[in-house]
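dumping this here so i dont lose it
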């Protein structure tokens, strides 16, 4: 009776410990910002065996081991500045675990239906069961995406953010100094980067409209004049041309500017011109 009771206690305990300790982890998921600065160039998979004391997964150690193994493999297979992201980690029975479990069962007797031992408990089951309750081996399979960092993309994103912050400060200054109820046309903010110019114009127009102090010339009308006069939103516009275009648009004030960059740093200069007098109404300059 005592032997049967021991069997009923140890077998479920062993199986519960093994099943409950199976590893299933996620690590180093790409953030939205990282997705804009990296490119997924492939994937790698690595396997290794780990021992879990008291059947409790050491999640931090497993994640670190998985990352190290995958990074090493990626550096062997890919060139450039690569890293591992979107790591998936899964664990299952390892060969040492199966051998130990098999030895324990054979040492104790024959397994019958319902995982109940039909013969007496031998030293194999007692020792093997004790080891299994102390911990277990698991075969870890880790898979991750290989990403390559694009230095140009990251630098471009930094510049965009810096320009947006600088344009917010410039907008505040213009809103305070420009005459209320003026009809304003934002013509051009010149830069070697067309996207940077257009984003700066959009930011300035939005802030001026949001101030609810001015009338901003519709971009559709501005685009029509731009095509007729054959000038680019990202290019430099002379003061004389700006005043001429302002007259065509029926604006009181036209705004032009430039963005100069050196690496991730630069400066924005904005001028607001009176269409009737061609004089500078106000001027703002911001470093970034």
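and the seq i came up w/
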């Amino acid at each position: 009776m005592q032997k049967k009771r021991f069997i009923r206690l140890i077998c479920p305990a062993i199986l519960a410990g093994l099943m409950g300790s199976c590893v299933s982890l996620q690590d180093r998921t790409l953030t939205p910002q990282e997705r804009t600065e990296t490119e997924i160039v492939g994937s790698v998979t690595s396997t290794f065996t780990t021992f879990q004391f008291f059947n409790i997964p050491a999640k931090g150690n497993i994640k670190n081991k998985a990352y190290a193994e995958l990074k090493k493999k990626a550096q062997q297979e890919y060139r450039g500045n690569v890293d591992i992201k979107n790591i998936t980690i899964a664990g299952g029975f390892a060969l040492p675990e199966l051998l130990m479990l098999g030895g324990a069962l054979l040492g104790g007797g024959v397994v019958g239906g319902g995982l109940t031992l039909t013969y007496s408990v031998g030293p194999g089951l007692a020792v093997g069961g004790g080891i299994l309750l102390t911990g277990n081996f698991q075969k870890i399979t880790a898979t991750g995406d290989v990403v390559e960092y694009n230095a140009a993309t990251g630098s471009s994103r930094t510049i965009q953010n810096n320009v947006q912050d600088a344009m917010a400060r410039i907008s505040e200054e213009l809103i305070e100094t420009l005459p209320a109820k003026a009809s304003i046309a934002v013509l051009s903010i010149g830069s070697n980067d067309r996207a940077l110019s257009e984003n700066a114009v959009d930011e300035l127009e939005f802030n001026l409209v949001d101030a609810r102090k001015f009338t901003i010339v519709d971009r559709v009308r501005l685009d029509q004049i731009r095509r007729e006069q054959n000038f680019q939103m990202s290019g430099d516009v002379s003061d004389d041309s700006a005043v001429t275009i302002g007259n065509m648009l029926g604006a009181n004030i036209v705004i032009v500017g430039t963005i100069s960059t050196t690496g991730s740093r630069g400066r924005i200069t904005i001028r607001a011109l009176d269409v009737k007098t061609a004089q500078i109404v106000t001027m703002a300059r911001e470093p970034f």
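The longest helix spans residues 151-177.
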